Amino acid sequence: MVTALELARHGVASVVLASDLQFSQGSRAIVFTRRSMEILQQVGVAQRITENGLPWHSGNSIYRGQKVFRMETPLDPDDRFFPMINIQQQYLEEYLHDACAANSLIEVRWGNKLVSAEQKTGTVTAHVDTSAGPYQLETEWLVAADGGRSEIRSAMNLKLEGASFESIFVIADIRIDLPYPTERLAFFDPDWNRGNTILMHKEPHGIWRVDYQLPPGETPEEALRPESLQERIDAQLKMIGFEGKPWEMDWSSVYSARTLTLPQYVHDRIVFTGDAAHLLPIFGVRGANTAFQDAQSLGWHLAYVLQGIAPEKLMANHSLERVGAAREIITEAGKSTRFMAPPSRGFRLLRDAVLSLSLTEEYVRPLYHWRTSRPHEYKHSALNSTSDDNAQFTDGPSLGAPPQNVQLQQDDFLLDHLGGGFDLVYVATLQGIPQDLLRAVDQAKNKGLPLKLLAITQKNVDVTGADKTLFDPQQRFQLRYAVSAGGAYLFRPDQHVCGRWLQVDATRLLSSLQLAVMQ
Amino acid sequence: MKPAPNLDIAGLEQVYDRLATAIDQAGPEKSELFLVKLALLNAKALGHPQIFENQIALALKDL
Fold first, then answer.
1. pLDDT tens digits for A244-276?
2. Residue in A closest to B33 by C-alpha
3. Which residues in chain A are contacts of B32 at CB distance < 8 A?
4. How confident is the model over A456-472, as pLDDT tens digits?
5. Which residue of A190, A248, A421, A425 is most buried, as measured by CB atoms within 10 A?
6. Is residue B37 part of a domain?
7. Interchain pair A357, B32: CB under 8 A
8. What is the domain range of residue B59?
9. Average pLDDT across chain A, whole number
10. From A346, which residue of chain B is nearest by alpha-carbon distance?
């Protein structure tokens, strides 16, 4: 749905096929990162999540009843969103669906199951099953967002690369009232589940997520028996001092830690995205949060190819960038996994030694640090400018980096104004914007490139020639982006930086814009 | 005062005896965990990951 909303934003119509008849019943993903919220803001649903979710920024690691590590992510006044927010996946689906329903370019078809797809030159035929019988759908491009068990992926005989770990985890949502703030709780090697790890997260509406690792050899079927769930959740509650407190099961499932990705996401006119493209361990909240980044990237890449703004090879760039992101996440996730669920005897011994030392030795405690999902920097992207001043900058987001939000005024942030196309954010001089720069921007627009010129100014008056003037009385943008009057940042439609200049000029801007759409 | 970083025969003998008795004290179930903890404390005191790497290579020889 995020892909459909991004496509619609760029003027491209789509049909969304959902095999289910309703929103997902279990909560599944519950923790969403700041970058996810920034992406969801772009498609218009962040406000509802903020209203209903539980934001947080601290995590605790507990061993033998002692809090051995506390991670606090400081709150930056330049950020609109908290580092993390908890909300059940079904609410997020509902908000996204409402946004899709309100968009005339998107048609959501429930109870329509995509069963197979075949490609001919420039077109894909999708075979769809419904309760009223099967039908075919012709499309120029098919986005396979059909999940971890993607049937399209299997039918095309595409193999995921990487590792699967043996440890299996149970995830259960229970209805219970516990007097804890919204913070992550991680319990290591408790008496009731020796050697294993238990995670707890608070969700809205009196729900707690409990994750626990299973002893080796136990099957998912055994673990999901009601008596087994009851016994273990009771043991966990007893350990934290709430023995006998009543609770109800809301939803439960199992997962295993996997670090797998397809080596390519674009196969002619079929594009794999989200869990259909990669399977990532959930330590560090990497599943849904990575999928939003995929969807946002896919939206503009595909729209620009369909509209002839960029050649079809731009889709290869999408694949390259997102496969690179998945591989980076896999490396990071491997580091979390080796501590949370040690993959071998050696790793288990080291983990146990660190747990034991951490009760008295400060220096090992940072090893508890939970590496959370962070957006990938497209450092080596082919779309990055080769004629900018990136190397001369002393600070600020570099080429390929995701944006840094900036609070311009009360409840007015930089990212509220970006998106929907390329954005050139120019720090206006006393004279405003030079004529040759204005001409260059017009020239790019006349060629059909979606581009906005935003002028940052300290004076509360509109800057002549700018599509939008951003009033920044405290010069926060200049500070966070390490740039002064006459300098500029060029943001891609996914708000990643693709060019930055201490002093921008028309020639270098135009060549960078061409490069950014592979023209 | 910090002693000079040199392990003479008397010092080596002291370490030899102390390590042996500590392994016995930890017991067969916990001696491995004890040795890993000790290695991590030594690595901290050493302060050089590369020297630690060399020591691992030496210790892995002729097992």
1. 999 999 999 988 878 899 999 999 999 999 999
2. A353
3. 349
4. 999 889 999 999 999 99
5. A425
6. yes
7. no
8. 29-63
9. 93
10. B36
Q: What is the ipTM of this complex?
A: 0.91
How many other β-carbons are positioned within 10 Å of the β-carbon of residue A115?
Answer: 13
pLDDT at A118 over 60: yes
- With an 8 Å Cβ cutoff, is B30 touching chain A? no
The gap from C-alpha A372 to its chain's centroid, in whole angstroms, comes to: 11
Identify the band that residue A27 occupies on the pLDDT scale cut at 50, 70 and 90.
low
3-class secondary-structure state, position A418: coil
Strands (E) located in A374-503: 407-409, 412-413, 422-427, 451-457, 468-471, 488-491, 497-501
CA distances from A337 to A132, A185, A238, A408 (A): 45, 16, 26, 39
Report the alpha-carbon distance of residue A38 to residue A494 in Å, rounded. Answer: 10
Domain count, chain B: 1
Please tell me the predicted confidence (pLDDT) of residue A344.
86
B23 lies in some domain: no
Q: Do A353 and B37 touch (CB under 8 A)?
A: yes
d(CA A182, CA B21): 47
Residue B32 half-sphere exposure toward CB, CA atoms < 13 A: 10
For B45, nearest residue in chain A (alpha carbons) = A363
Neighboring chain A residues of B37 at a CB cutoff of 8 Å: 353, 356-357
- The tally of CA atoms less than 13 A away on the side-chain side of residue A301 is 26
Candidates A349, A361, A363; nearest CB to B36:
A349
Specify if B54 maps to a domain.
Answer: yes
State whether residue B44 sits within 8 Å of chain A by CB. Answer: yes
* pLDDT of A25 strictly over 80: no
pTM (whole model) above 0.95? no
Residues of A with CB under 8 A from a CB of B: 349-350, 352-354, 356-357, 361, 363-364
Distance CA A429, CA B39 (A): 60
Cβ–Cβ contact B20 with A under 8 A: no
Assigned domain for B16 exists: no
* Domains of chain A by start residue, with CATH: 2-162+258-368 (3.50.50.60), 163-257 (3.30.9.10), 390-516 (3.40.30.120)
Q: What is the pLDDT of residue A26?
A: 61
Can you list the alpha helix ranges (DSSP code H) found in A359-505?
435-446, 476-480
Cβ neighbours of A353 in B, within 8 Å: 33, 36-37, 39-40
Work out the minimum CA distance from A214 to partner chain B, whole angstroms: 22
- Looking at residue A353, what DSSP letter applies? H
Which residue of chain B has the CA closest to A354?
Answer: B37
- The CA distance from B20 to the nearest CA of chain A, in Å, is 19
